[in-house]
Amino acid sequence: MAKEFNVERQLFDEVMVPCYSPMEVIPVKGAGARVWDQAGREYVDFAGGIAVSCLGHCHPVMVDALKEQADKLWHLSNVMTNEPALRLAKLLTEQCFADKVFFANSGAEANEAALKLARRYAADKFGPEKSEIISFKQGFHGRTFFTVTVGGQAAYSDGFGPKPGDVTHLAYNDLASLAEHMSDRTCAVMMEPLQGEGGIIAPTAEFVQGVRELCDKHNALLIFDEVQTGNGRTGDFYAYQGLGVTPDILSTAKSLGGGFPIGAMLTTSELATHLKIGTHGSTYGGNPLACAVAEAVVSEVSKPQVLAGVKEREQWFRDALQAINAKYPIFDEVRGKGLLLGAALTEEWQGRARDILVAAGEEGLMVLIAGANVVRFTPSLVISKEDIDEGMARLERAIAKIYQ
């Protein structure tokens, strides 16, 4: 049996690599949109584990799926397939344009697979010189060396030696610069259909349509990183469905497992043929436990009433933020779609998003930031009106303190 001892926050500093700076509290229990720490203090969760806990904490459909699968089968390898993986793949293809699925463990891995597929397809079909990947400034695509290089934030990719080459970063929502730069050397354009980490920036209809047309013109693949926007987060099952533009490759993770680690790359049959046997793989990709939980999550989130409820909750959030802002005008605008929302700070409040996050924590509310100037909200997609009202009351108290 494991040795018993007190698990305190200082233990983090002793035993963990210091690439994170977690809050002082340690949560020990969650239910729905509420979380409790070691001292029994309760928090309302507007963060959702960074757009992961799409059904809140310990939702019965997830708990039941995990318990049931735990008694059956935990792991094989990709020498064999398994029933949960096949059921989940079928379910995902029914939700979107894709015919084929590759399972991984995270968004970064799903994006890595997407980028490798794009490069392999271009090399097979057009030759090795068609290798340029274009992505956008302030974009975020993961922390592996390839994905962090494609992501448009140098602070995350500098300082690790030579980067993977032939990656170009352009301005998001600037169609003219993309049109000017793109050529038949371009192998793929990778973008978030709503930038998350970069400040909750929505694409204009003209931009997203134009990107698709330019990809078609130059025989380049369009990759949508839907790691944060997917699985109902914007009110459509995938965000592309609300934009009227279909990608060639789509990555999904975060809320796909509702908190259980899983990612997936989705694509067409034609493109999938270029990842022949041995060209890519993942030890845990398609794990039966992860796939069983994700199957339960997708089945629940894809229900029409759940997706309609996301749009309803978006309005509740917007109305409440507007009411707070009428008393304490610190927000310039509320950006985003569905339950991926960002309250951008006014000119005089620039750089203070983290102050609001900390103050909210002191009032018993968990929120996020997206850069220094945006407070980000990515709660459970099924959060109750009561929980939203309580969370907003706590946010108002936090903002009132800072404001005064």
TrEMBL record:
Pfam family for this entry, one: Aminotran_3
Entry-linked SUPFAM superfamilies: PLP-dependent transferases
Enzyme class: transferase
GO biological process, one term: L-arginine biosynthetic process
Residues noted as binding pyridoxal 5'-phosphate in the record, renumbered to the chain: 107-108, 140, 225-228, 283
KW Transport (keyword) present: no
EC number(s) reported in the record: 2.6.1.11
Protein name (record): Acetylornithine aminotransferase
Keywords: Amino-acid biosynthesis, Aminotransferase, Arginine biosynthesis, Cytoplasm, Pyridoxal phosphate, Transferase
Catalytic reaction(s) noted: N(2)-acetyl-L-ornithine + 2-oxoglutarate = N-acetyl-L-glutamate 5-semialdehyde + L-glutamate
GO cellular component: cytoplasm
Subcellular location: Cytoplasm
Biological or metabolic pathway of the protein: Amino-acid biosynthesis; L-arginine biosynthesis; N(2)-acetyl-L-ornithine from L-glutamate: step 4/4
Subunit structure, interactors included: Homodimer.
Residues holding N(2)-acetyl-L-ornithine: 143, 282
GO molecular function: identical protein binding; N2-acetyl-L-ornithine:2-oxoglutarate 5-aminotransferase activity; pyridoxal phosphate binding
Protein family membership: Belongs to the class-III pyridoxal-phosphate-dependent aminotransferase family. ArgD subfamily.
Cofactor note: Binds 1 pyridoxal phosphate per subunit.
Entry keyword annotation includes Cytoplasm: yes
Extra information: May also have succinyldiaminopimelate aminotransferase activity, thus carrying out the corresponding step in lysine biosynthesis.
Species, as recorded: Photobacterium sanctipauli
Principal cellular location given in the protein's record: cytoplasm
Name of the gene: argD
